[in-house]
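Forum > Structural Biology > Help requests

Title: Can anyone predict the 3D structure of Histidyl-tRNA synthetase?

Hi all, first post here. I have the sequence for Histidyl-tRNA synthetase but no way to get a structure on my laptop. I'd be grateful if someone could post the structure tokens.
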Amino acid sequence: MKYSRLTKEQFEELHQEFINFLATQSITADEWANLKVNKPELAETELDVFSDLIWEGVLNKAEYLEHFSAQHMYLFRLGKKKMKAIVVNVKNKEVDITTKEGYNWLRENLMDERVEFLQADKDYTEDKNLDKFKMIEQGAVITKGDLFKYFDELIN
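Reply #1:
Sure, ran it for you. Structure tokens for Histidyl-tRNA synthetase below:
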């Protein structure tokens, strides 16, 4: 398995897609029920393959990622050849931008000397989607890129 298995909730959300996936494998509902009971390792493999297919589709479409910590905001635009990063550092230890109050402080103090902006380009490894997935595993979330676009405009 390349990524991680989908959760029970995600499988429930993707129930129809999973049925279609099994159909492409020529596995009927009765055969699937039989597989789960009599060949659970094969059923597990099918769940893993389906999970990887879903992750590939999601990661191929992802254009922006965001990751917040108490004093840092990491914003990424996921280009075809490399990713562009914008990092917002808050050098005020009393502010936690993961809270509403802290985020509001940042919004009101963007030009404060205790707010630093950094930019960088980062090349992908041979497996671009695995790079994206690792970032998600570390806490990044896929977004529409509104914050990235805002800060890109602000500092460029």
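The beta strands are 64-68, 72-78, 82-90, 115-123, 141-143. The mean pLDDT is 95.
Shout if anything looks off.
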